[in-house]
């Protein structure tokens, strides 16, 4: 949408360029600045310590919401900004606004881009009711390390899935809701050493291009208006000061036409990194690298005029930045109609939005284990006692997740309330056991209350505060008090259905053989309780596939499916060849990428390949039959994995190249088929050329990345 091949955007750029020609340097620099203000600071009387007035000295606002408030700022802005150019406000509208959707990691487990698009659209529409024009989403960082708290905001560990979701989210925000999207955090922010947020990494260009850039590319191709420069450094250069990343690659290779905004204060922070000697140097390096808009602070207003006068920054660069920013404002319509209105923008938390949230949530749940106890069909449990316990069972805040913008926990459907409705003929025996507020916990008393139940639904998890920004962890276990309580529950001899709400994969190892079922619900959002009951009752058969590997133990992180082989044999472990290992933990993850059970079972048979060779420019088709061999209708996502056996650089053990999600009645079969072309096999090779290299490829269609199924081989000539 915000690409130069779109005539509407081209026209907006033309109008912007005309205006830029009439603007003074000072006026242009104002457009490059974003402030976070309040009513006291954003008025003409407010003067900062250094004698500068804030009002009218910025082109965009951070996190300012509310029609009246924004229109007040707008009026001030039109009066004080040189050339009376309207401002817009950008906010973190990540997974919902008033209606909170499941966290992005959960949404990606649906493997359904449409769900992501719908959720982004609702979030964007609700945000426009408050005058928001721009969201800092989607986050498209590849999340390979569950210690990093921001995996919650990601679309998981795989570039193929993340690319599909990036595109869908951009379209939802921009095309459906009419607000600007922002691809972040550019780039390799998630590759932080040790899983510690803000930490840097050393990374080859091949890894960057093959793994971390594809979702950005997909978002850019979908027309993303903006990109956020990240906090971290790569190979010694902080991204917010990297010309290579922000200009040469982002614009030169990825073809980005929109504008770049820094992450919060990240240009100023170039000093803390030891990459800039003072503020002015930080501006030279940050703006010079390609950060068009400075999120927060007055640094550009303060230093860019001198840098231009000294010939260190060209006015042409400034013109180009301003043209891009103004073009976005023309596209939004704010240049022609500067005042915001909520009229015609729809409501909040409407039935329709709640239905979208509920559908997304139930489809995002991943059934990790089930000994057959689930579903708990209400008619079969009539007259019986269903225990309900754990901190998540009657909690409406944590389940909203880490970036619930305009959240209202009072509107959350609690699991307890939904269960009481869903099981009118059963006795729901509720007792908290443990609470997030520990002083309210009553584990011993609860065990006593629950001991006569026929089944116990235990809703555990990590609080939403423990995922998201700056929440890196070294231990991915459930909180200790929950583990102790679970042990008590298991010892009652009553089947325990374990529900886990969290922003990351937590360690499930010790519960696998003790819980009758484990349902991972992530942070499901406003419709939590209803979605949980849809799945528990069997009204909906769960079909989510985890897009992030679950480690056996925290020390196994990072663990991800598309890793490399070593040269040393993996001695003594069946089915493993040259993978690195620990002596105290299995080689692979507890649950691999792509894994998720159903109430029914699926069998994969008759795998075939159309040819054992692929000619340049040609294709091969890989197919197999998937049959529902169980007793419930259900959805399955069959996944195509390909391994490039030998390359000019070593290649991952396998890579996801496609999937097909479909619904089958008991006994029904579906022929799954994928056509692979040279393009699907291409990668950035040793010489940094994007090519498919000749040689052998092994493929398989499987229910998850770890499944042992028939392998097929072909040779690219
Ligand atoms: C810092 C976070 O890294 C980024 O994701 C967010 O958009 C900005 N703060 C603005 O709130």
Q: Catalogue the unreliable spans.
A: none
Q: Radius of gyration from the CA trace?
A: 26 Å
Briefly, what CATH class of the largest domain? Alpha Beta
Summed up, the domain count is 3
What is the tally of helical segments?
A: 18
Looking at the structure, the CATH topology of the largest domain is TIM Barrel
> How would you state the average pLDDT, rounded?
97
CATH architecture label of the largest domain: Alpha-Beta Barrel
Structural category: alpha/beta
- Sheet with most strands: strand arrangement: 11-16-15-14-12-13
Hetero groups in this structure are: 1-deoxynojirimycin
List keywords for this structure.
alpha/beta, 3 domains, 18 helices, Rossmann fold, six-stranded mixed sheet, binds 1-deoxynojirimycin, TIM Barrel, Immunoglobulin-like, five-stranded parallel sheet, 26 strands, 717 residues
Description:
With 717 residues, the protein is an alpha/beta fold. It has 3 domains: 286 residues, Glycoside hydrolase, family 3, N-terminal domain (TIM Barrel), CATH 3.20.20.300; 192 residues, Rossmann fold, CATH 3.40.50; 117 residues, Immunoglobulin-like (Sandwich), CATH 2.60.40. The chain has a 6-stranded mixed sheet with strand order 11-16-15-14-12-13, with helices on both faces. It has a 5-stranded parallel sheet with strand order 4-3-2-1-10. Helix 5 runs parallel beside helix 6, helix 6 packs parallel to helix 8 and helix 9 runs parallel beside helix 10. The radius of gyration is 26 Å and the shape is globular. The two termini are 38 Å apart. The protein binds 1-deoxynojirimycin (NOJ). The site of 1-deoxynojirimycin has 6 residues, from loops.
